[in-house]
């Protein structure tokens, strides 16, 4: 489009203005503001005093911070591989021709549209000892002997299992659909040719399906790692970070430091530590995507 | 082998459906029942009494309306702003275009969670805490939506634009009469993803809202739940009432939702 230069600039600016205004005010500006906050003792009523690099020095030596980061990392390590396997499994199930095909597609996705609060409270009640759904079913089938109970929410290891299972159930839907649509794009002729060559189902899965799914799986894996690192709400509701803060993730610690301990400056400093970690992961994801840009389509 | 697949598939489906079925069944039980085995949940008597009690005695419907209102407004403006910006970045030549593009791209790397503390301070300075504006406005700039829509505009050949220009159409006309209709599917997909994102957004409402008339669902539910912890019926009614609108929306828009997610994966 040809126009006088000044007019063209003005016109583009008008198109960009609504987005840039909000983006500048609520993304860029807070990011810069946050840097300022990290150099102050900054409270909710904003009584502040300049303390230089103290927040940074403290955050690097704060055992609570590293523990919380570690918990977020544990959650990533628990959920990411299981998420990928589950997502591919469900996609294969929903891709098979069957009268239940439509039902499978809906039921695997529906939990994803639930509000995070609903999903978390369902998890909380499902994993309750004595009367919760899981323990009752285990009793019914005799897997859990009469009179003994699993305390899902108060034993650290079991609490992680409960949180992870709930999260997988609640969030696998999106990844399931990504995998399903990728499976559907694999040309049928390839399978036919393989079948003519005498390949069985298992060989076709390992030699055709899985390699074809590799690009989308790589994308999902990176997005999943980043998303899981930011876990907060379901843990907050299900265990409150307990027992003894053993499941408290970094976002919860940031929230508690800022708003319960009334130390926004220190909380902001923690969140920049999280930012750096997420930034490294995001850059890694970009690099992986672009290096093999062609096969992400 | 075929039977193994079938049985395995059905077991997975049951596992996925079980919590939801349980939620619905418990929600229509009477309060104070004795539960000895899991089967007791499924025995009559049934009653909708608690639904009435929750709907009339709490602010739950109020919060559902808030959630819907916020999600609808956030969706409309996010997609509109992203379409305008994406169009400019794709089709309008202007100085600093590359720079602007990189500025937006950088936004993809900034996690909202990491800037939430200073965002709180900024919103406070602007008196946006505890207001609908505060729930809505900070959510309207989505770099992802801009980048995705830009790439769809990129796919429309420039020759087409010039033909409209020769007919005497200005830039605004090109945008509304040609670009928007041609990218409708992409726009619908972004809208659906934005809606689900807003519906589930927890952290920002949690920090910025203290007035319970302005709560959205993810905040209202925990507040209610803390009052009813002994029995299962009320919590499950609360869960059921909160989920039914969004499940209905899912059933209506299933095809578009699935399409939208597939599209976001391609751009992921």
Automatic annotation (TrEMBL), chain A:
Residues 69-285 form the ABC transmembrane type-1 domain. GO terms for cellular component: plasma membrane. It is a multi-pass membrane protein. Gene3D superfamilies: MetI-like. The keyword Glycoprotein does not apply. InterPro entries: ABC_transporter_permease (IPR051393), MetI-like (IPR000515), MetI-like_sf (IPR035906). The chain crosses the membrane at residues 12-32, 68-94, 106-127, 157-178, 225-244, 264-288. GO terms for biological process: transmembrane transport. Keywords: Cell membrane, Membrane, Transmembrane, Transmembrane helix, Transport. CDD domains: TM_PBP2. It is found in: Cell membrane. Pfam families: BPD_transp_1 (PF00528). Belongs to the binding-protein-dependent transport system permease family. This is Sugar ABC transporter permease. It comes from Paenibacillus yonginensis.
UniProtKB/TrEMBL annotation, chain B:
It is found in: Cell membrane. It comes from the Bacteria. GO terms for biological process: transmembrane transport. The chain crosses the membrane at residues 7-28, 63-89, 101-120, 132-153, 186-207, 232-253. It is a multi-pass membrane protein. PROSITE patterns: ABC_TM1. GO terms for cellular component: plasma membrane. SUPFAM superfamilies: MetI-like. Keywords: Cell membrane, Membrane, Transmembrane, Transmembrane helix, Transport. Residues 64-253 form the ABC transmembrane type-1 domain. Belongs to the binding-protein-dependent transport system permease family. This is Sugar ABC transporter permease.
